[in-house]
Amino acid sequence: MNNKKLPKYIAIAILLGIAVGWGCNKFAGNPETAKEIAGYFSLVTDIFLRMIKMIIAPLVFATLVGGISSLGNSSSVGRIGLRSMAWFVSASVFSLALGMLLVNLFQPGADLNMAIPDTPAAAVVVNAGDFSLKAFIGHVFPRSIAEAMTNNEILQIVVFSIFFGLALAFVKRQGHDAIGGLVDELAKVMFRITDYVMMFAPVGVFAALAAAVTTQGIGLLFDYGKLIGQFYLGIVVLWAVLFAVGFFFLGRPVFTLGKLIREPVLLAFSTASSESAYPKTIDALEKFGAPKRVSSFVLPLGYSFNLDGSMMYQAFAIMFIAQAYNIELSFTQQILILLTLMITSKGMAGVARASVVVVAATLPMFHLPEAGLLLILAIDQFLDMGRTATNVVGNSIATAVIANLEAERDHEADALGARHHQVAHTATQSA
Hints:
This protein is mostly helical. The protein has helices at residues 6-28, 31-71, 74-106, 122-125, 133-140, 145-150, 154-173, 178-198, 201-216, 219-223, 225-250, 253-260, 262-271, 274-288, 292-305, 308-324, 331-344, 354-362, 373-377, 380-430. It has a single domain (3-430), classed as Proton glutamate symport protein, CATH 1.10.3860.10. It has 20 helices and no strands. The chain is globular, with a radius of gyration of 23 Å.
């Protein structure tokens, strides 16, 4: 399949998936039959996502180790890491604050007038009991790299790869580069496998949308149209801000970046899976000119710490539930919620339906009805698509900006070195 035509095929698959899902929902007649039909579509989606997941761990390892070993020293890793975390924290705060502002402005849950239930219901839907910052910090460090790769624990793979890359850089400085060559070849092989897997992307996208609409029905989009529409309007505003900040650092090339990431963004949107977009995002950043040594380091970190769309979703979900039950939250309480989400969301990596779990864990902290989670679970698939695509956009721009800052620093260092060389040469001639 021609990679240049892949975004067009994915867009067609999205439309066909919605149309076929609507037809199957009408044909089914009852929820049980619809669920059975959707199961066949979901099987196709699961196969595609399994193929994606099988390449993520070796691809992250190969690109990250190769990138770190080429950085040469731990100071470069530390500098890029600090810049990355400064960007991630700033973007997270802004995304949460923007979500809070818009949900207070739009008031999407204000007309629901739900009665506060006597018993909680969220515990039946998701298990947030083991979800905490303490558990997350302990979970970051792998007990075994084999276990981390088996479970696709990206952050654990990142930790091991940092140690491995720094050790490999040290060995390379001693004149031994055999392992470095093998790592580079592994990365090339994994990118080729990625091309093969992506040939099935339109089929996986079609099946994912068909399954969702078959089960939920297209009418659900109209029933929750107000919330969905306002959330996606917030996503558009967030995209505009992200690209504006990108323009400040990158100039007009940021629009070139936007064109290059269309394919991974479409994949993330249609499958609601950031993993499906990772290989193509790395490829797009390379085409943009971001060095692999930077993109292979920043992007995996972003998957755990820079989830702009998920942040906005959490703010929308918490405030929507409060509005639905007519619970007034003061400005101080909303600030506390924002700060709480900033902390708890950092434990999202490796948690299934992570954003929903974060919301479920946060609701009881502020005495909000856990049963309110049931209000948004019905449409979570459609909201998940938007927040996942936004995560890809945010991480792409962050990586491109940090790569550009590193390039400017390297240029300044080279210019300074040239001046020192010239001064030394002049002094030698004078002597």
